Amino acid sequence: xxxxxxxxxxxxxxxxxxxxxxxxxxxxxxxxxxxxxxxxxxxxxxxxxxxxxxxxxxxxxxxxxxxxxxxxxxxxxxxxxxxxxxxxxxxxxxxxxxxxxxxxxxxxxxxxxxxxxxxxxxxxxxxxxxxxxxxxxxxxxxxxxxxxxxxxxxxxxxxxxxxxxxxxxxxxxxxxxxxxxxxxxxxxxxxxxxxxxxxxxxxxx
Length: 205
Fold this sequence. Notes:
There is one protein chain. The chain is α+β, with helices and mostly antiparallel strands. The chain has a single domain (42-203), classed as endopeptidase domain like (from Nostoc punctiforme) (endopeptidase fold (from Nostoc punctiforme), Alpha-Beta Complex). The chain contains eight helices and eight strands, in the order αααβαβββαβαββααβ. The protein has helices at residues 2-17, 20-29, 44-53, 68-72, 105-110, 125-136, 156-163, 186-190; strands at residues 59-63, 79-83, 92-96, 99-103, 114-120, 142-143, 153-154, 195-200. The strands form two sheets. The chain has a six-stranded antiparallel beta sheet. A two-stranded parallel sheet has the order 6-7. A hairpin with an 8-residue loop joins strand 2 (79-83) and strand 3. The longest helix is centred in the first third of the chain and has 16 residues, at 2-17. The protein is globular, with a radius of gyration of 17 Å.
C-alpha cells in the first residue's frame, strides 16, 4: 500500500506543477508574503563585515524565517546565489520569481535573517572564472517552477550547481521532495562535500 500512496502523491504534485493557480502562487503571491510587518533583523554592520570577506566565486546561502517560502522549501536554507563580481552594480546572480536576477550582496542581506558565505575548496582561480562565465551564460533563463533538472529553466540552487560544470561541489541531489526525481536544494549545497563556511551572519555579535 505504501508504494501506491507514493504514486498518488507524486502524480498529485506533478499535476499541481502544471496548474495555472500553482504558477500564479509561486510567481505572484508567495514571494511577497512575510509574517511580520517589520524589517528583517539583518543590520548594516553585519553586511559590512560579510562584504569584506566576500569574493567572486563565493556561494551565498540565505534564509528569512518570516517568509512564507521558508516554510515551503525543504531544509534549513531557502535560497542560493553566486557572487560573480564585487564592487559593481551586478555582484550576485540569482534565480528568483523574476527569472535570472542581477543583484548585489546588499540585496540578499536586506531580504534575510541569516546568511552564510560558502567557498568551494575544489575551485581554483581559473575554474572560478569558468564557473562565473557559465553562470552569466544563463542570463536568459526563466525561473523553474517545476524544479526539474535542465538549463532551459533554473531555480536558485540549480543555477549554482549548473554553473559548476565539472561537478566539483559534490552537492547532494537527494530526492527530498519524494517525487522520484533529483533535486538540488540550498541545504544540499550547504552540505556539499567540497564547500566550507567562510562567514556566517549568526556568528556576528
